[in-house]
Every structure is written in C-alpha cells, then in structure tokens.
Specification:
The protein is α+β, with helices and mostly antiparallel strands. It is built from ten helices and seven strands.
Amino acid sequence: MIEFLWGHLVGVASDLWAFLANNYDPVRDTLDVAVVGLVLYWLLMLIRGTRAVQILVGLLALIAMRLLSDVLGLMTVSWILDNFLASAVLIIIVLFQADIRRALARVGRGVFPRMAEKQESQVLEEVVRAAQALAQRRVGALVVLERETGLEDLIQIGTPLDAAVTKDLLVSIFLPYSPLHDGAVVLQSGRVAYAGCILPLTLRADLPEGLGTRHRAALGITEETDAVVIVVSEETASISVVFGGEMVRDLDGPRLRRVLRDVSARGRREAEEGEAPVEEAEPEPATARPADVRSGAGA
C-alpha cells in the first residue's frame, strides 16, 4: 500500500513538473499566483473568528476525502462526493451568503468611502435620535448594529423588515403596543434587517443583581461578536452602549453620538489596516457601577 501511494505521488509530481516546464511563464504566472494568493488571504482574514471557518474546514475535509477515495479506489464514495461537490459553487454561495454580502459591502466602502461614511453617519444619527425619544418616554429598547461578524448564527431571527433606518420607525417598533417591541432590532448594512429578535444572554455570574434582560442580552451578543448594542432602560430611562462585552452607561444624546462615532471610526481604521479588533478604552466593566442598573427584567 505504501509503495502504491508513493508511486502515485511520484507520478503526480512528474506530471506537474512536465506541465510547468512546458507552460510556465515567470512574469505572467507569478503575477497571477500573487493576485490569487492576496485574494485568498483577504477572504481568510474576512471570515476569521466566524463560524464560516468551521464550514470551510468541513468543505476542505470533503475534498480531501474525494482525493483519497481515488487513491484507494473507493468508487461508491467517489460517486457520492462527485455529485455533491458538482454543486460546490452553489453550496458556497448559500453557506457563505452573509460573508459574501459583507465582503462586497467592504469593497463598496473602499470604492466610495465618503458616500459610505455619510450613510453610516446618517444611520447613527437616526439611532441616537430614536434612543433619546424612547428614553424620554421611558420605553425600553435594544438596537444591535452589526459590524464585521455576521449575526445570523447567534440570533433567533424575528420578523424580517429590510427598511430604511429612521427615528420614527425605531420608536414605533419599541412602543409597548407594537407586536415587535419585545425583542431586539438588528441593523445590517445600514438597514433595519430584523425586529423582535431574541439574543443569547450572557452567562457571566459577576453581574450586579437586578441587571435587566436587555442588558444581559446586549452583553451576551457582544461577548461573541464585534456588534455594538444600544440599550434603553425602561426602569431608569438611561441609555447604554455595549461592545466587546463591556458597557458605557448613563449617556445623553451628545455622549451617545460621540461614543458611536468613536467606535465606528475605530472599526474603519481596523478594517483598513487589517488588524484584529481592539477594545475601546472608554467602556467600564458591567460590574463597575451596579447602582446604575435598577431591578426589573425588562430594564
């Protein structure tokens, strides 16, 4: 068996060497390989830290199994994998649709940076105005801003909307008589993507007593992703921003606007520099000021 495998590998290597000797152009092919390598590196950095990595590993395992089945002469396994992998392009598009959408959005931001920044600024302004209006009415709210990490695998999707982000829409969603008020609103690519979503709650045991469900959900989603969450407490009428598993509390309109813009600007710098996300220095641990959060599950 070992001699058979070795002979097969030698034959493949000989065929590859003969092909390169007859067809390899040093300038053209080196440039071609370099471009493909850079694109693959960029894609790997894009999906780093997401569940797409696990899916990619699974696909690579199937491809390796297909090659091994040829070596071992497993005809049935080869036939099954051939039929499955024949639709590999469609499978990749379906499995990686969120990552593909995020990659195209990033390319668009690179081509039209000023337009993208202006749209982002408008979205943040509408969110700030909505948070102020809800806090004045003592209406609880939970707004999640998706960033680089996709949220589809971590949230129980509520009602899809795909609507423009406006103050009036956000306020109307969270008013008590709205059927979608009990849950989170998720913003994706500058649009209101979903409403009434259920987020994973944090499992931390060091949180102050009386921390509401909204705050626990905000901490839970930001512990696993780079999302930014705005929380309005119906008990205290206070506004908080949560990201990186930490919380900035007791914000008014101007401070909320400043925090969101700082987080957004830092995110753009990290995307341009290709660095891993760095936690903002401003947030305090959620346990730092327990007096800021009153009792009530809906806080």
